[in-house]
Amino acid sequence: MIQGKLEGRVAYGIDTGMGKTESIVALVTAIDQLKLDHVSVLVCQSKVEGLCSLKRKMMDMGVPEAKIGLIHSYDFDPTMLDANGKPREGNYASLQATPIGEQRQFQLVTHSRVRGDSDIARYNTYNDAPRSLAIWDESLLISDSVSINEKELDKAVHNFGVDYRDSNIHTGLLSYLEQSLAYIKAELKVQAEGGVVSRLTLPTIDAETKRIYIKLIEQISGSRAYKQTLSSLMNIASEDLRMLRTGQGEGIVSYQTSIPTELNKVIILDASWWIRELQKLDPSITDESTKFINSSLKKYDHVTVHQMFSGGGRTSLTNDFNGSREQRKIPKEIAAVIKTIPESEGILIFTYIRRAGEPDFIGMLKDDLAHYGINLEQTVQTKVKGELVNVPRVNFLTWGSETSLNEYSYCSNVILAGILHRSHLDIGSSILGQQDNLTQSLSNQEIKRIHDSELAHLAFQALSRGSCRALDNGYARAMKAWIIHSDISIKTILESVMTGVKWEIWDEIDSDNKGVIARATLNILAYLDNQSQGRLKVSTSVMRKELELTNLASTTWTKALSSAMSKTKSWKLVGRSVESVTDFDLLFPD
């Protein structure tokens, strides 16, 4: 691309700790030392601090500061940095931003700045010409999607009417909302009766009226739960929409392409490429990974994941945290896990950020852990630039911080207190946007497949904030992880990128039958994986005996066997035996 011989968007799946950042630094350093002044590079990452770290590494290699642009909107104040040079608050950066108008040879900018900016030339121009190369660190999604559940919208419009029907100021807005809802319900009825999927347009509204209505919604008093739903509707009121029916609900979806087509000399370096199916739907991206590398270059033999088969979505955790301390299961289980970890080891806990009407997940978790005897003020030692420093033993992050950060790589224990779930409606909207086709057919099976992939991607990125991100002689550093998720399919997906990872059951204080079934399922899958290629058929009764599961209740054994068969493509249940699936079976499943 730098030589002008290649254009497009080319993806490489490169695991964490395998040199993406160092490669960028090396490239920029080489360009500078070779005095290739006509070559310019744009680097896009998700986090401001990641870009600050990248700039420091470039300068450490001798690249002049005057050549490196750093674009962000955070404040810079040296007094707001801690002893390690990191910002004490999220709205501060450790390095000062450079003016956007300055065309520096190497420009560092966040994903969010580039996405949706109609004037991409502000970042992608140097010496009045497009930059030689753009490097996109992590996943490249070309659109910003919106989804609104019809039932939630119905409730929001109703509640808004209850609050403001007698207000003259809000009369026009309420009328528009009710008309829009009527359009949506009519389209849903057409589709329910077998109508063809088509674009939906809400009642016409001019730009000034739309601006006024959005302002009125913003000024609604208090933390009304329906404000966000109404704001979302008004923001897409003039866009092409579509009604989408999924297995988990129905509603309106829309998207806008957010990556300009002018950005057409891009190298994508993505640790999640192997498992994030959503990104692969973009026809503009070429996968070059398999020509040079594969997903098993980094081994995870020294990493063990423990899975609690319990609901880990936001609703499940909200219900758990809304109980009394004695009733709250998750904090109690996490405290029990922490008590088994040596005091010299760091711990990183992921959970949900608080939203209106929800519990303070981190605050309550900290209180409960302290109640159960966990010392949250305790520190451990780690090396920073060759020197031993004291750092917090127990750390907390919320979803949204699962990429780019590397300062927690001293944590050899990672606990995912829930995994962020996206609604099927939201996933459907993203699929349409990634393929830039609003009216394409979309099955519930495809939505479920992408949903599971997105969930595994988030889990993988979060786990990779811990010590397993680092690489020693081809192996991820030793780490233990605990995740809360009710579906065992996440194991299969993560194993495809975390080669050699060990999977165990999270031994809960108060286990239930779900854990028994899950444990038996894992044992069956491991048993079948260990069969020699010459053994093509195994009696289920023999397998049960060899697994020492004869004491298991017959119904539990049947459920575990059925669960295992649904999660393997190598074996199938035929009568009272399990048979190896041949290549012929895979080609002609019927």
Q: What's the SSE blueprint?
A:
Elements (H helix, E strand, L loop, with lengths): L7 E6 L6 H14 L7 E5 L2 H13 L7 E4 L34 E5 H4 L6 H4 E2 L2 E2 L2 E5 L5 E7 H15 L6 H22 L14 H12 L8 H9 L6 E5 L2 E9 L7 E6 L6 H4 L4 E3 L1 H4 L10 E6 L5 H8 L7 H10 L7 E6 L9 H11 L7 E6 L2 E6 L1 E5 L12 E6 L7 H11 L9 H20 L7 E2 L2 E2 L2 E6 L4 H7 L6 E4 L7 H17 L7 E3 H7 L7 H13 L4 E4 L2 E4 L2 H5 L3
Parallel strand pairs: 1-11, 1-12, 2-4, 2-7, 3-4, 7-11, 13-21, 13-22, 14-17, 14-18, 18-21
Antiparallel strand pairs: 5-6, 8-10, 9-10, 15-16, 19-20, 23-25, 24-25
Could you characterize what this model shows?
- It contains 20 helices and 25 strands.
- With 590 residues, it is of the alpha/beta class.
- β24 (571-574) and β25 (577-580) form a beta hairpin.
- Residues 583-590 have low confidence and may be disordered.
Number of strands: 25
Strand content: 15-25%
The main sheet orders its strands as 3-4-2-7-11-1-12
Specify the biggest β-sheet. 7 strands, parallel
Q: Provide the low-confidence segments as ranges.
A: 583-590
**Oligomeric composition of the shown chains:** single chain
**Amino- and carboxy-terminal Cα gap:** 46 Å
Which descriptor suits the 3D outline? Answer: globular
Helicity range of the residues?
25-40%
Structural class: alpha/beta
Number of helical elements: 20
Give the rounded overall mean pLDDT.
90
Supply Rg.
26 Å
